[in-house]
Amino acid sequence: MAPWLVPRLFSPALDAQIGGSGLRSALLPSSTSDSTTTSTSSPPSNALPRALPASRAFSTAALAAAAPARSGLRSSKLTRTTAASRLEQTTTHLAFSTSSSASMPPLAKPSTNHYDMVVIGGGSGAMGVSRRAAAYGKKVCVIEEDGRLGGTCVNVGCVPKKLMWHAADMAEHLSEAPEYGFGDVNNKPAVPGFAWNYFAEKRDAYVRRLNGIYDRNLDKDGVEYLSGHGKLTGANEVEITMRGEDGKFTAGTHKVTGDRIVIATGGRPIIPSDDKIPGASLGVDSDGFFALREQPKRVVVVGAGYIAVELAGVFNTLGSETHLLIRHDTFLRPFDPIISETLQDHMSKTGLRVHQKTNITRVEGERGGPLTIHTDNGSPIEADCLLWAIGRRPNTDNLGLEHVGVKLDQGGNIVVDKYQKTNVDSVFAIGDIQGKALLTPVAIAAGRKLSNRLYGHASLKDDHMDYTNIPTVIFSHPTSGTVGLSEPEAVDKFGKDKVKVHTSKFVSMYYGMLEHKAPSAFKMVVGPGDKVVGLHIVGLGADEMLQGFAVAVKMGATVKDFQETCAIHPTSAEEVVTMVPTTHKP
Ligand SMILES: Cc1cc2nc3c(=O)[nH]c(=O)nc-3n(C[C@H](O)[C@H](O)[C@H](O)COP(=O)(O)OP(=O)(O)OC[C@H]3O[C@@H](n4cnc5c(N)ncnc54)[C@H](O)[C@@H]3O)c2cc1C
């Protein structure tokens, strides 16, 4: 089988971990298709202790068990329930409208040889661009090779990650409950253990329901969904290698043409090669995190970006012994120092073992068994799971870009102008594949704006994604959020004399009642004309707090605008409009 036919969302390391009985092997010619079950396992009959017992060893079998839940999804039928309809309503931010029909299978072949728009990829960006184009009456098809729609965000990114964060958040609240009068505070009951497998099954069922909603939304909007691998064979031509119901890419090939071709193929996680770091492939990546069926007792997470911090935070908060290995002194270095410093200090106090200036040199052990992780700084670490979260690479290989000479940058990302157009007039690229602001709402908005500009009213002829002041949140413990320039970026841009910084550090009222307190730390970065050019917040509720303030920053609000907005009391957010007295110059 040609290597490019291997589904991109599953890394070699995960494939190795699932030991031939997992999803990837299910897609290879020698395998059979997997279960299509959408049921969840029963709730645990008895609570598990918070510290994981040794008997719950982390195993290859546990990883392999993940496979059925992640495959064979195209043929699953969604039974509509009240919960499902509720779900449809609550996912409009991802899917912008819903339908009540049953889940639609992909088409067996294209309905025509020519489309107004052909979209390669079926993730966030593809949904945005294709559905908007179809709303303008255009004939559009979406080609997705993974066997399910939704891409990284829905299947192995934002959605399952946020659910894991909610579980961890609940563990925190359970441990705090006695101090709020629930149970005997002098004889605190053990926090019930977390049934990882039960939750993972339930989480995956939720994701499958989202997959079904995505299917139906495309169908409702008249976008054709073709399950297969797309490859450019000309500036206006795409070859589709169709994927059959058994998951194999043996259902024939078709060539279609499009006035416009949009590449929305996203990226995939990186793992170092075994040549570079012997034994590196004994670890998993972020896709592998979602394949875990048991909670590892001891985990090493490698990486300093937001995905590493979020996943390490989940493990740590749920009670795994968690080591985070970072190359420098601090994690989240591109973020404002108030975020990285506050979080690193607090997460370390809550048990996360941050190993600064530490690189893995060698990994020993057996796949799925205990691992000995050797580093260049200190004694080896014994762990049950090694998770690499060291970055992602764009899915540009075997896309046929060379056929039409689409330019890539040094990182392999597709180079686009502000209208998402590549150097080839008919070819566009949106989302992670263009290497800027790798976030779901960015991919969706860039896609919608592209279709607005191409097919919309004259007033939309300049519509394009503005890559400045994009708000984003880190689902850490506590959460943190950021919009605009960090203090160092503002100083670089405007000069030290033109920048003022207002900060506030406090303990939110929720923690005032508790023995163990989590910090809140806010920073407003002010540029010329007293304009708020950056806002960075860490603390309880930061995730929900930031969206509204981001509107103000995007609109160019000044400090006065913030100050003249009446505070909402008692909240943490009120600090944002009242923190001026602690002003300092950088
Ligand atoms: C662990 C994790 C957590 C994240 N959390 C967040 C978060 O909280 N908030 C947020 O905004 N973002 C988050 N992200 C980022 C977000 O998931 C991505 O920015 C977003 O999914 C990008 O959308 P996209 O359409 O560009 O690509 P994708 O969603 O990756 O979709 C690309 C699709 O193209 C398909 N494909 C690739 N090549 C081909 C081909 N040749 N033919 C056919 N199909 C192909 C792939 O199978 C894939 O389904 C997270 C990512 C990860 C990994």
TrEMBL record:
Disulfide bonds join 153-158. GO terms for molecular function: flavin adenine dinucleotide binding; glutathione-disulfide reductase (NADPH) activity; NADP binding. NAD(+) binds at residues 303-310, 391. Residues 470-579 form the Pyridine nucleotide-disulphide oxidoreductase dimerisation domain. Keywords: Cytoplasm, Disulfide bond, FAD, Flavoprotein, NAD, NADP, Nucleotide-binding, Oxidoreductase, Redox-active center. The keyword Cytoplasm applies. Its main location: cytoplasm. SUPFAM superfamilies: FAD/NAD(P)-binding domain, FAD/NAD-linked reductases, dimerisation (C-terminal) domain. It catalyses: 2 glutathione + NADP(+) = glutathione disulfide + NADPH + H(+). Residues 27-50 are annotated as: Disordered. Gene3D superfamilies: 3.30.390.30, FAD/NAD(P)-binding domain. It is found in: Cytoplasm. InterPro entries: FAD/NAD-bd_sf, FAD/NAD-binding_dom, FAD/NAD-linked_Rdtase_dimer_sf, Glutathione_Rdtase_euk/bac, GSHR/TRXR-like, Pyr_nuc-diS_OxRdtase, Pyr_nucl-diS_OxRdtase_dimer, Pyr_OxRdtase_I_AS. FAD binds at residues 162, 230, 432. Its cofactor is FAD. Binds 1 FAD per subunit. Its EC number is 1.8.1.7. GO terms for biological process: cell redox homeostasis; cellular response to oxidative stress; glutathione metabolic process. Residues 29-45 have a biased composition (Low complexity). Residues 115-447 form the FAD/NAD(P)-binding domain. The active site is at 569 (proton acceptor). PANTHER family: GLUTATHIONE REDUCTASE. Catalyzes the reduction of glutathione disulfide (GSSG) to reduced glutathione (GSH). Constitutes the major mechanism to maintain a high GSH:GSSG ratio in the cytosol. Belongs to the class-I pyridine nucleotide-disulfide oxidoreductase family. This is Glutathione reductase.
